[in-house]
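explain this chain.
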Amino acid sequence: MTVTGASFQIQKVVAMLLAGICVCLTSARANELVDLQLVLAVDVSSSVNYEEYDLQMRGYVAAFRSAEVKDAIRSGAVGRIRVAMMQWAGSDQQALSVNWTEIGSDAEAEAFADRLEYVPRAFDFGGTAITPALRFAVDLLARDGHRGTRQVIDVSGDGRVTLGAEPDKIRDQIVASGITINGLPILNEEPTLNRYYEAHVIGGYGAFVEIAADFTNFAQAIRQKLAREIRGVFYGS
């Protein structure tokens, strides 16, 4: 073998070793532990008009820019969370709005809030189908390559089921797998919607309902809710 040929073979071996190292690092990164994996499930059914949709999204933006939520993120053992946002309405109307994003600093929280400012409405109209929305949220959790010490689905909405099955059965299956479902019922059309969420939607370790009296109150409610569920079950108990 010539010197040139030997040099080429050495270069190939080094390249293969470096590629293997990169694969290992990528795999390790994908399985890295975070404090929380959180799915934000946003109701965009027909009962939510465009002004109300805008109030919801501005509420999420303000929440991730708030000191309360940023402090909650840093308070965990790892100090990092992963968040994805979906929108839902009728039976076949579920869409991923913001894919899994890791947040562990004020700058990353601000960047996530910036992304939320430009999220378009996924559906212009549709009924209220909570069961397929929950199923979609579980699939999102399963597709994330990271592991969270806790997994939470955060469902907000302003009405009861109008299409398909009640969510009790899928709720029980999700809870049995170790996932918690929290709820943010908006009471502008149904003053007792919180009782419906408590009976049929939420479940799991530390599950709770945070009430928004109407959409103008959503920003305060979602900020408080996010801070509480990011910190965990003992916060505010």
